[in-house]
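Hey,

The postdoc asked me to send both predictions to you directly instead of through the lab channel. I've kept everything plain text so nothing gets mangled by the mail client. Protein one:
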Amino acid sequence: MSIQNVLVTGSDGHIGQVTVEELQNNGYNVTPADKFPKREWRTQIVDFEDLGQVIGVMRGHDAVVHLAAIPTPTRHTAEVVFRNNVMSTFNVLEAATILGIKHVVLASSLSALGYAYYHRHFNPVQIPIDETHPLLSQDTYGLSKMVGEELAIGFALRTPDLCVTSLRFTWVLGEKYRKVVTEIRKQTEKFEPFGAFWTYVDVRDAARACRLSMEYTIAGHEAFYISAPNIYMDQSIRDLLQTCYPGDYPIADHIVDNISPVDCSKAEKLLGWQAQYNWDGNEL
């Protein structure tokens, strides 16, 4: 069945607004849905922790891009972040199964690895990081994304013709955050990464990853890292890793200069996705 009508949850958020525009520009009929509407595009106001509301808003759609979430563990108590993110993901997958919707895109995060908001510092298992690296999150936000991916695996087993993708976004940059990067780059003595491993992805590239994932047609669950091929710092990635993650773990020979320590070749191969924009908003 061809995809025509798409629901975008979290449509009025940082990634959601650009994703709605990306889908509309590519000919899709898009229904924006958000708990806190900001845009004047008739956003459907939905509490995604309420299964009845989720079923109601998802009815009549061919696909859903689920971006609604509390995006960090820093402004709400742990149980609020976990409950919101896990229950909203469960409800979207449950509603998709009930309604027969076969295409679901979930916003996961590099935070599922555990490095962005760690409680106890630890080193990576390997560099580059790809989908074979274990998810080792300690914080409530990262744990909510880990559980969301496990839910996706379970629902894909339950519904064999369901196609669900989890996009592990790195730090998603728009105009606001580009100013933050500019300030971070001036702090030459402070190497500790904001986000994880000094990685980023432009919000337009993130939105395009959402569209390409929605168009992916192989049933089952797949997770993809979505990151630019370079880091946002001027320092060598080797020096940064040695400073912040000293220890004995394998680093591939090609991880040098400003090469990203996150490998997105799976997304390139299966989705046809590649980053197009640098941290400063210009083309790579």
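Protein two:
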Amino acid sequence: MKRRKASPARKAAFFIILAIIVCLVTVTITGLTLGSGVAVKSAKNIRTGIDIRGGVNATFVPADSTITPTEQQLESARAIFETRLDSENILDYTITTDTDNKAVIVEFPWKEDEKDYDPQAAIDELGATANLTFCSLVEDDEGNPLDADGKKITESGNDPAPKEVLLQGNDIQSSSTDYQDGKYVVTLSFTDEGKEKFKQATTTYLNDYIGIYLDDQAISWPTVNSTIEDGQAIIEGSFTAETAKSLSSKINAGALPYAMTSSNYNAVSATMGTKALKVMLIAGLITLILVCLFMLIVYRMPGFVACLNLLAQVSIQLLLFANLGLTITLPGIAGIILAIGMCVDSNVIIAERIREELRKGKSLIGAIDTGYGRALTAIADCNITTAIVALLLIFFGTGAVLSFGYTLLIGIVLSFLISVLVSKWMIRSISSYGIFKNPKLYGYKEEVGKND
């Protein structure tokens, strides 16, 4: 029976994927500018944790010294700081409440591009921590909002003057951004008490303005278009993705139960230092080289494909962390290394299965297809159980544990997809060329004494 020739698409698959991997590795090292201000960040733009590069320690207390916050209010403030840091993908942080001194202590790492190491500038990244209020506005006879000097804001450009406080920050449950009908909006969700207050406010000021203030500064004054009864509101305006996120962040930060200020702050030295990072990176690089040599010597062509898969997996992981703004810690790097080990393990299982099928006398393509099929169950079982552990670490962990969970989960997903799908496409593609059809290139060895 005459064999069917491999299609041009199948023969080209290896080189197409190889070109993609080379591009991924290049972008990981150098980054990429796409134009219009859009850029893909390189690995050097990854935010590193306190253990690697240090960070900032800040103590927040009530701005009004006459306020004595309750333990519940302190815990509420702590939760809001935590939400704010999580929304910025800052994974390595610690937040504690000091009930004796009525303070909240926050510790978080420097930004990835920090050069001046200014603690105050770093604290500003947390967003405004002033008191948030929703107010009715002082208006003229025609319903135009006025500023503090009694002039229309369209004429003077100043902030509108508040008249009466309708809601406060602790009436807001959460705020986020959304993209609706071709424009960015800011969404609000109110607490049960805030829901009733907001219903009353939107009923009273229907087709009128309500000002949103952080301390004495107006950050928005949207028009009330309808009475809102479900505790869900949308702020519309000329938002970009950045300005919508900025407003949402300020609202979340302003949802503190009382206005807070940083009473003292200082820079924190790296707990393990950059030397620890260098040692781990060198160890990881040496391990990667040794693993690749082992795979090449023992499994040859499948080993070569496995090495390319490892480069692709590490590159994608680093690009995701850099461009999603995720924080990586030393445990996070350990998560990447563990995920690399999982990828190697998957490729070893596949290579061994292919070799077994060749020993049974199957054709090369038949051995590849059957080998992948037989290896799938073992690979899926191993990856799923590890992914469950990573998910538990993400749901229940904080700080460095969270960083480890994220790197491990991302690595496991990439490992499974690349090992099962991408490597199969590459091996089936390369095996369609006559020069690469020799079974010995796939680790096959005739057993000595087999025919004796």
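Summary for protein two, as requested: The chain has three domains: 8-44+273-442, 55-129+256-268, 130-255.

Thanks,
C.
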